[in-house]
Amino acid sequence: MAEADLLAARREKLLRLRDQGVNPYPYSYARTHTVAEVRAAFGSLGPHQRTGTRVRLAGRLVALRRMGRAAFGNVLDRSGRIQIYASTDVLGSELYERFVDLDLGDIVGVAGEPFTTKTGELTVDVGEFTLLAKSLRPLPEKWHGLKDVETRYRQRALDFIANDAARRAVEVRALVLRSCRSYLDAQGFLEVETPILQPIYGGASARPFVTHHNVLGRDLYLRVAPELYLKRLLVGGLEKVYEIGRNFRNEGISSMHNPEFTALEAYEAFGDYERAMELAEGIVEACALAVAGTTRLTYQERELDVTPPWRRASLLDLVAEGSGCDVEKPLPELVAEIEHRGLPLPPPLRNGPKGKVIEHLLETCVQDSLWNPTFVLDFPLDISPLAKRKRGRDDLVERFELYVTGREVANAFSELNDPDDQRERFAMQEALRAGGDSEAQPLDEDFLRDLELGMPPAAGIGFGLDRLIMVFADMPSIREVLAFPPLR
Length: 488
Fold this sequence. Notes:
Elements: H1 3-19, H2 35-42, E1 55-67, E2 70-77, E3 80-87, H3 88-100, E4 107-116, E5 122-133, H4 149-154, H5 156-162, H6 164-186, E6 190-191, E7 197-198, E8 209-213, E9 218-222, H7 227-235, E10 240-248, E11 260-269, H8 273-292, E12 296-299, E13 302-305, E14 311-314, H9 315-323, H10 331-340, H11 354-365, E15 374-380, E16 389-390, E17 393-404, E18 407-414, H12 419-434, H13 445-451, E19 458-464, H14 465-473
Helix pairs in contact: 5-6, 6-8, 6-14, 9-11
């Protein structure tokens, strides 16, 4: 049937039900079990065994096969699906005909005794049923499901009905967030909330979204990161804090990037980036155990071992090895060597800063090879305005990026707490902004004032949780782990 005919037929059924005095959208249903609970309680039955127990389930009807005076179907709830069996012997002819007149997609409540068929499949013998919500639109074709990516993202509710993997990704997200909180709470961290609407954006190199507050009569920015506010809490004596929340960056959309994303940032007084590495290992290990029960995983059909401790490697050494370039050379000589080797280099980077050239070489020549977790250590100072200088190397800072499956999932520093040094770094960023760098960070006088009160030395780390969730959900694109990804 054409879709218009299917919609019309379902509308006719809706009218017929109402004419018969049936409410197609009742208020509630008192179920006693989920599908998973039925399977846990009665899954060990042998063929042709019955339980003698009556259960009440509720879920979406996703299959229905009439076989004369009996019918088999499948009901799906949040915990899984289970077979149901209806017959005229139990329901009687009138109720049975009403049952087989249900449509795929209808949400139903069924009550009956679990038993096993001759093939050993756990099944609920329907003694009564209730229509809980009439579905007026058809589900995807049975054998093909919902495969078109654009359709899946534009009709996300339908995608969750049709695709087990889509629902599983949402469940994995919840497990990861819960595990992060549990781990940090157990470590004595305090979960806090900081402003999303900010008068000055900062804490990351990114273009912000701008909005306007009518009463205040001023522009505000959706935060690109909570870092500067979390550091103010360290100044105020809250020594171990973290926040899980949304950040917003006015950038492109790809399999790795989304302008609205979930981040975890954690700060611990009196630590440095060595402590941040310990936190990173602990958080990821806790997530792996919660989701998979092991630290030896499979991602996209390739083995992945997240068992601590993890590899540590110098950024400069990795880039020199991966590109073949001498990254210790001055910028003009480094650019000339890159071009001589035929490596790609966007024209704007030829004028520096040198740190961005090195970062570009990391992204193009190295990161794809960083499969198992790797701490990439010690970044150039000119692209790290919020990190302490590396001990013994003033052109670098104590910063690492964590790479897993060839993508960055975390960024961390020994946090800069010298207000004079921080002012100089902000001045460097202002010069970049004046030169046309739209991602450079603005000077924040309020933050500098608070820093002058004295901030203890600290370890800080930020996780891009969507990317981490991709790993544990075994998804190749960030859009697959967002319940409702943005669309054009």
